[in-house]
């Protein structure tokens, strides 16, 4: 069978059950991704980016359509689709080393004990975290935690690396450092990457293609913008590159002219926190 | 540097450095002492004015005296026991010398248990009951936290049995133990089993409920990590669920042990099972002029042991909890 595409999303749709009946979050999402491509998902808050990512990860099951990775349907989570979560989600009782080690042990790939140790160290080195290998997550900064989270995901040797706003919680300077690290790693390992971002510069700087999503409900892909900038890319040189600024302009136009957002940020925050608290409550009294 | 200069400098250092530490010392050590002294003062004042049928209520001095008497009684009993065994050994040695085929008989010393032996019995019983309950409650709690169905099934039982005073169980437990635990050479005495089971019955609930709550409120991202890593059920519980809920489990364990200790004393009084509770009851029945002071010694001992048990659990919690930033008290 010929396999032109590495990862295919076909007619993906998602209905969330809610007390007021099903909520149609996504509809007709079609996307074909080549091996080694770096894809950014961008769109307004609440449009369904995380939902797409979680469907690819296998954490959500699409109610319509499906995802195929290397000719195999995705129907459960697995280490070949590693996820970097927004809030690092390191196990707080394990050191950076142990966090990565857990992933390595779980995806042994026939490694001996010594090779496993080397692989853990190698991946920490990749994200420049070797010096803090024995620290607990609580003892390192937010940026460092996110680095360890990336190391853990890379250590699974994923076919696809999924990142949900990986740098969203970081300050601009730390974020720039991590973006450079991610570009460096992507150049070296050539993983397929899907990254969600709210940051237009980040999307243009890192991506091969930017996937722009329309607002929900029934969100779908609005436009896809290929970024044909030579790699390696340098943020300072690009700052006054007309091509780069054209791309930025395109994305901004999509977000703020074609898909103007009506819901205020506060409203959205409120909704999300309601969802969260509703999901974790358990009544004991 | 001349001496005249050095002295004010030291003075300054004292002012700058030692005052905060002195303050800390005051609040950490002196305040509890003040509290205790005030309590002792009020106690002795009040005690003089309370007349009971067994004489006036014992003040701190009388209680202290009886504490010493109890230590003396214990030492005397131990001496007696030593002598008993010595004599027994001698007797046996003589008989074996006469007749090498003779199998020496070893009998245990059977004196009335002293205060300290009663303490030991109670401590041992509460620990066994508590550990048995924890070994049941933690796995069931984890199950309830992991599976909504299990929780829904078990919850009515928890709600039904949690408010039952364990003393209501006591007659049932006593009868069931008498009926079921029959052996010619019992490893444990029936009274011990009865007390321990009663303790277990009330140690179950706080641990079970806190564990269930802890497990069901694990960070969703961590659960997703487990899914992405495809951890099997066992690793999921051991590597994610258990460590995450350690703080909640310990909260439950501390509550359980506290309740267990209180219940044990009551159960021992009610069932006449050996232990501190029986000591209190016996003294009450005895009704001599020292009884009240001796009971007071027991009351304070019970309090001190309860406090020590709680500190023990706190130390364990500190050791096992990964969340070192949490304020534990
Ligand atoms: N479990 C759920 N149950 C019900 N509705 C949900 C659920 N998860 C997401 N939604 C809804 O689906 C829509 C898309 O949510 P999603 O989290 O994918 O948005 P997003 O694009 O990632 O937003 P953000 O940028 O703020 O993270 C939102 O309207 C949200 O309210
Ligand atoms: Mg999101």
From TrEMBL, chain A:
PROSITE patterns: ABC_TRANSPORTER_1 (PS00211), ABC_TRANSPORTER_2 (PS50893)
GO annotations of cellular component type: plasma membrane
Location relative to the cell: Cell membrane
ABC transporter domain segment(s): 7-240
Pfam families per UniProt: ABC_tran (PF00005)
Stretches with biased composition (Polar residues): 275-285
Listed GO MF terms: ATP binding; ATP hydrolysis activity; nitrate transmembrane transporter activity
Extent of Basic and acidic residues compositional bias: 265-274
Membrane topology term: Peripheral membrane protein
Segments for region (Disordered): 265-285
Main location: membrane
Protein family per UniProt: Belongs to the ABC transporter superfamily.
NCBIfam families linked to this entry: ntrCD
Protein name: Nitrate transport ATP-binding protein nrtD
Originating organism: Paraglaciecola arctica BSs20135
Automatic annotation (TrEMBL), chain B:
Residue span(s) of domain ABC transmembrane type-1: 119-313
Spans traversing the lipid bilayer: 25-46, 123-146, 167-184, 196-219, 240-271, 291-309
CDD domains: TM_PBP2 (cd06261)
Domain of life the protein comes from: Bacteria
Main location: membrane
Pfam families reported for this sequence: BPD_transp_1 (PF00528)
Record keywords, A-Z: Cell membrane, Membrane, Transmembrane, Transmembrane helix, Transport
Location(s), subcellular: Cell membrane
InterPro entries: MetI-like, MetI-like_sf
Record protein name field: Sulfonate/nitrate/taurine transport system permease protein
An annotated GO BP: transmembrane transport
One cellular component (GO) term of this entry: plasma membrane
Similarity comment: family membership: Belongs to the binding-protein-dependent transport system permease family.
Membrane topology: Multi-pass membrane protein
């Amino acid at each position: 069978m010929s396999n032109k595409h590495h990862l295919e999303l076909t007619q993906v749709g998602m209905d969330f059950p809610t007390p007021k009946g099903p909520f149609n979050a996504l509809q007709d999402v079609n996307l074909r991704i080549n091996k080694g491509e770096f894809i950014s998902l961008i769109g307004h808050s609440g449009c369904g980016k995380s939902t797409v990512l979680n469907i690819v990860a296998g954490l959500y099951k699409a109610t319509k359509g499906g995802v195929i990775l290397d000719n195999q349907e995705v129907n459960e989570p697995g280490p070949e689709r590693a996820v970097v979560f927004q809030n690092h989600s390191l196990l707080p009782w394990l050191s950076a080393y142990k966090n990565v080690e857990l992933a390595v042990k779980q995806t042994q790939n026939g490694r001996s004990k010594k090779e496993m140790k080397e692989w853990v160290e190698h991946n920490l080195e990749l994200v420049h975290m070797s010096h803090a290998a024995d620290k607990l997550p609580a003892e390192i900064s937010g940026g460092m935690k996110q680095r360890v989270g990336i190391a853990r995901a890379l250590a699974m040797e994923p076919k696809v690396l999924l990142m949900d706003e990986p740098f969203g919680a970081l300050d601009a300077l730390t974020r720039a450092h991590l973006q450079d690290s991610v570009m460096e790693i992507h150049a070296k390992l050539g993983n397929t990457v899907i990254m969600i971002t709210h940051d237009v510069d980040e999307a243009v700087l890192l991506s091969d293609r930017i996937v722009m999503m329309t607002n929900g409900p029934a969100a779908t892909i609005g436009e896809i913008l290929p970024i044909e900038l030579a790699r390696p890319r340098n943020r300072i040189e690009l700052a006054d590159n007309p091509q780069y600024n054209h791309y930025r302009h395109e994305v901004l136009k999509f977000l703020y002219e074609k898909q103007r957002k009506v819901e205020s940020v506060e409203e959205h925050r409120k909704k999300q926190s309601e969802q969260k608290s509703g999901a974790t409550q358990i009544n004991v009294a | 540097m001349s001496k005249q200069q050095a002295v004010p400098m030291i003075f300054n250092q004292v002012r700058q450095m030692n005052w905060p530490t002195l303050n800390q010392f005051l609040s950490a050590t002196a305040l509890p002492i003040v509290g205790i002294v005030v309590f002792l003062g009020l106690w002795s004042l009040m005690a003089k004015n309370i007349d009971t049928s067994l004489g006036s209520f014992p003040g701190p001095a009388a209680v202290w005296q009886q504490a010493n008497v109890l230590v003396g009684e214990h030492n005397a009993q131990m001496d007696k026991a030593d002598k008993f065994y010595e004599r027994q050994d001698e007797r046996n040695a003589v008989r074996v010398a006469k007749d090498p085929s003779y199998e020496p008989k070893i009998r245990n010393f059977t004196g009335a248990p002293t205060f300290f032996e009663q303490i030991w019995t109670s401590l041992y019983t509460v620990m066994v009951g508590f550990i048995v309950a924890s070994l049941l409650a933690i796995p069931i709690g984890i199950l309830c936290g992991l599976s909504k169905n299990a929780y829904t099934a078990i919850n009515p039982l928890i709600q039904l049995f949690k408010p039952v005073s364990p003393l209501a169980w006591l007659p049932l437990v006593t009868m069931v133990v008498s009926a079921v635990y029959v052996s010619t050479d019992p490893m444990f005495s029936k009274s011990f089993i009865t007390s321990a089971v009663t303790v277990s019955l009330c140690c179950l609930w706080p641990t079970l409920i806190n564990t269930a709550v802890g497990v069901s409120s694990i960070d969703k991202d961590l659960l997703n990590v487990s899914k992405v890593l495809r951890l099997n059920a066992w690793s999921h519980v051991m590597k994610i669920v258990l460590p995450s809920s350690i703080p909640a489990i310990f909260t439950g364990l501390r509550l359980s042990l506290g309740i267990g200790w209180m219940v044990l004393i009551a159960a021992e009084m009610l069932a006449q099972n050996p232990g501190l509770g029986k000591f209190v009851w016996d003294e009450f029945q005895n009704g001599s002029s020292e009884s009240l002071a001796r009971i007071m010694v027991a009351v304070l001992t019970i309090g001190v042991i309860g406090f020590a048990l709680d500190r023990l659990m706190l130390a364990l919690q500190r050791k096992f909890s990964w969340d070192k930033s949490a304020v534990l008290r």
